[in-house]
UniProtKB/TrEMBL annotation, chain A:
Organism classification: Bacteria, Pseudomonadati, Pseudomonadota, Alphaproteobacteria, Rhodobacterales
Coiled-coil ranges from the UniProt annotation: none
UniProt keyword list: ATP-binding, Cell inner membrane, Cell membrane, Hydrolase, Membrane, Nucleotide-binding, Translocase, Transport
Boundaries of every ABC transporter domain copy: 5-248
EC number from the UniProt entry: 3.6.3.27
Organism: Pelagimonas phthalicica
Protein name: Phosphate-import ATP-binding protein PhnC
Keyword tRNA processing: no
InterPro entries: AAA+_ATPase (IPR003593), ABC_transporter-like_ATP-bd (IPR003439), ABC_transporter-like_CS (IPR017871), ABC_transpr_PhnC (IPR012693), MetN_ABC_transporter-like (IPR050086), P-loop_NTPase (IPR027417)
A single Gene Ontology CC term: membrane
Any GO molecular function: ATP hydrolysis activity
UniProtKB/TrEMBL annotation, chain B:
GO cellular component: plasma membrane
Family matches, as InterPro entries: MetI-like, MetI-like_sf, PhnE/PtxC
Any single Pfam family the record assigns to this protein: BPD_transp_1
Molecular-function GO term, any one: ABC-type phosphonate transporter activity
Residue ranges of domain ABC transmembrane type-1 in the record: 111-294
Name the record gives this protein: Phosphate-import permease protein PhnE
Gene this protein is translated from: phnE_3
Amino acid sequence: MAATLTLTKVSKVFAETKAVDTVSLDIEPGQFVGVIGRSGAGKSTMLRLINRLIDPTTGSISFDGVEITSLRGKALRDWRRDCAMIFQQFNLVDRLDVLTNVLIGRLAEHGFLSSMAMQFSDEERTMALQALDRLDLVPQALQRAGTLSGGQQQRAAIAKALVQQPKIMLADEPIASLDPANATLVMDGLKQINKEDGLTVLVNLHTLDTARAYCDRIIAMRAGRVFFDGTAAQLTDDVVRDIYGTQGLREFNEAVTSTQSIAVPA
Amino acid sequence: MTAFADTPDLSPMQQFEVDYSALRRRTQMGWLVASVIFLAMFTFSAWLGDFFKVTQVTMPDGAREWRWIIPAGIPRLGEFIAKTLPELSWETLSADLANWFWRWKIWLNLLVETILIAFMATTLGVIGGFLLSFPAARNLAPNKTVLWVSRRYLEIARTVPELVWALIFVFCFSVGPMAGVLAIGLHATGALGKLYSEVNENIDMRPLEGVKAAGGTWFDQIRYGAVPQVLPNIISYTLLRFEINVRASSIIGYVGAGGLGQEFREALSLQEYTDLSALFIIIFVTVIVIDYGSEKLRHRVIGLEKGPSA
């Protein structure tokens, strides 16, 4: 099930700006990869390109030897199922219960009628409950998603991603809207899935200490380009200053941007 | 931007005062211009609509005099109402009432028909409007062609009034309630489709993105991401439309499309003016009852929405 995700000279141009500029990367199976960089550095765009929520202007993305950029129709939807995506704003349906929100992760397997009737099999419900159980959300299963706290919503979103039985998990600033305690819960959840299921995780972060604490590998982007690619130890103060630029001095102070409730030694 | 350009010799506070008074002047100027344009247009419309017409009226002593049309015409309203009111007296009240509502059996039948026409037409309108409201919403339409076609269809359906659709359908399917159902249903499709699609255009798109990112089709995104968000509004608009459709179906018989309307026509042509007031009371009471009921229902739906989770 594990395979390498390869980006080859991928670019995305929005009107005038190059959001992602000739990015080439290999993401090895089972890695926990953090992507850091200033706002607008192209982190979100890169994840969206991989999930094919947007199409690249040029370049190639392939997974397990399959070219992702040319997928259409059912094959494209299957790819989106295979690379589950988690969003900063959770993107749950507030007015549906948590269980149904998790079952949305099964839609790629459904035909038109069963999907429109919201008919899911017992196996699928079991699968959804198991996923919720891993994230300690079973008591909330029948509550409306909108009534949950931010941290619970993000964990519900992770449960939804899990029932997709993905091959790779993308997370776009998953903890940017959460308080430190919930941020830790969510990051721990991702790390646990990475460890136990051997699932590749690619996560955008805007806090350095979180990246250092959780990621096997850190990729830094600046102005759409990959600026640094290495381990946390290789990420020295000089490199950080270059990533965030001189205007980023405030961001450079890791303690200020920390989302950790407990100090994590770098 | 130029209005807010920095003048280096002013402090930020002074700069704010300058900008603020400029902004206020512009706002006041805007209101003034808009008010003048509005008043001019309103007056012009009133003039076109003969509101300033002066007409010749016959005075009580038989003399003819020129009078402004509004004070001249208002007394005639009382005259008309007086004509439609029956003579009721205490001694013979039951006989007078029976005389007033002399066709009550026919009217009751037609009233039931009227409500059933409204019910069926609303159902058809909801189905058509609901299905078309998604392709007709700018943020949801899969492509420009589908958007264009569904929007034009809804426009045509609602621009043509019910009475005109009824005339067409009476021509096609002959006199009877079926023509009325189709006429009101088609107009309701257009009206509801427009309202629903505007609701759709105001939804939060993130849940739809969440469904899409999990491998959902366009239909999945609509079903799971959009429908739960718009459902309370749809129920509310639907009940409101039912009330409107009852009013429409009570007049549509005027052109032979079923319901109470045909009785209005007959009463007018036979100059049975007291029938008009009887019919008016029947429709008035019915509409009040339906308004009240649907309002209760609407509040219950909204209450249910908020109830369990709050």
